[in-house]
Amino acid sequence: MSxxxxxxxxxxxxxxxxxxxxxxxxxxxxxxxREVIELTEDGRDANLLDYEPDxxxxxxxxxxxxxxxxVCDAWDKRxxxxxxxxxxxARKWFSGLSQADIVVEMPHRATHGGTRVMGIFQCNxxxxxxxxRSGRTDFLGLANAFDAIFVPWGGSSIVKNLLKKGVxxxxxxxxxxxPAGGDACFRRKDGPPSKMDKASSSVPKLIARARxxxxxxxxxxxxxxxxxxxxxxxxxxxxxxxxYFEKPFRVIFEYDKATNTYKRYFNKQPDKxxxxxxxxxxxxVVVILTKKSAFSTSEDYVGKGLxxxxxxxxxxxxxxxxxxxxxxxxxxxxxxINRSGEARFYMNGRxxxxxxxxxxxxxxxxxxxxxxxxxxxxxxxxxxxxxxESNRKxxxxxxxxxx
Length: 403
Fold this sequence. Notes:
Blueprint: H1 3-23, E1 24-27, E2 30-33, E3 55-56, E4 80-84, E5 102-107, E6 115-121, H2 137-145, E7 149-151, H3 157-164, E8 185-187, E9 199-201, H4 203-213, E10 225-227, E11 240-243, E12 251-256, E13 261-266, E14 269-270, E15 281-282, E16 284-290, E17 292-294, H5 315-321, E18 326-328, E19 340-347, E20 350-357, E21 367-370, E22 377-379, E23 383-389, E24 394-397
Parallel strand pairs: 4-7, 5-23, 10-22, 16-23
Antiparallel strand pairs: 1-2, 3-10, 4-6, 5-6, 8-9, 11-12, 11-24, 12-13, 13-14, 13-15, 16-19, 17-18, 19-20, 20-21
C-alpha cells in the first residue's frame, strides 16, 4: 500500500468518526439520534406549524386550578406561598415541594447569588412542607401577584415592615409579625438533624389557621392560560436547560420525552422531594433575567416615585441591613421601576423567547407573552420560575450539556 493510499484511508476514517459524532450524542454509554429542529424564517418550529394544541380553560365549569391548569377539588381556593430554605445543604430535606403548583427560585442576598425557594400550593395540601426560612421582598411581591397567603419563617427587616403595614395576607411561622402560625408551624421530629432544618409547616393546618384569621378563602387569580400536552410524535428527543447560578446552586432541567416534563438537577445531582423520593419534574420552566440591586439607605426611592423601604425600620436594622438584601426588578408595587422584561419559556421540549409584564398596583398578576405579544399557554402541570440577574448565563441545547 502506497503512502498516499494510507493517507487517504486515514482521512476517510476521520470523516466517518466526525459524521458519527454529528449524528449521535453519548450520555452514560447510551447513544441516541440527535434531532435537528428546523426553524422558519420568523423563528418558529417548522415541526409544529401543522399542530395547534388544545387550549384549556380554567374555571368553575372545568374545575381546573388557575395556577397549574390541573383538575382538583381546591381549584377555586386561595393558595399559600410558603418560604423554603436557601441553604444548599438543606435541599435534600425539601419536603412537599413536588406537590406545589408553582415553584419560584431566585437569589436571596445582595452579596452573593445563592438562591432561596418558594412553593405556591393550591391543588395539593402536603402535611409536611419545609425546611422553611425567612421571607424576602421579591418573594412577597410574587405571592401578592399570585393572590397567595404569604407564609415565611420570619423575614428581612424590609419584609417585616411591609407585613406590618398589611400589604398582603400572611402567617408568620416565626411569630415576629402577627399573626403567628400557631400549631400550623412546628419543628419536625424526623428527617433533618439540625434544628434550623426542622422548621416546617402543614398546608391543612395553614388552611385551618387562615380560616381562624378570617382571610378570604376564594382565589381571585385567573391570569394564566393553559394547553394540553403535544403528541409524542411532535416532541423532540432531547432538550436541556442550564441556569448558571453561583456554585453550588447551578440548575439543569433535562427534558423527558415520554412524560413531556423537565427533570431537575441541583449541583449535578437529581433534585428530589425528601417526602416522596421523586425527582422534581416540571411541565414548564420559566427563566426571567432582570436587574438585581441592593436595598441601600443612600438611595432616593421617593424621588423616583417609589415607596421608601426604610420608612418604619429602626436605625439598628437600617444600619445592619443596608446593602444586604436584593431587589430584583419584577414589577412589585413598592420598589421596582421596571414593569416588564425578558423571559424564556421551556415547555414541550422547546424554547420560546418572550416577556413578562405586571401593572403597578397591589394584586396585579404576572402576565407572560411570546415575542409577538400573544399570551403564553402553559402545559397543564407544575411550573418552575427561575429568576436570575441579567448577567447570568442560561443555556438551551437539544443535546447533552457539557460542564
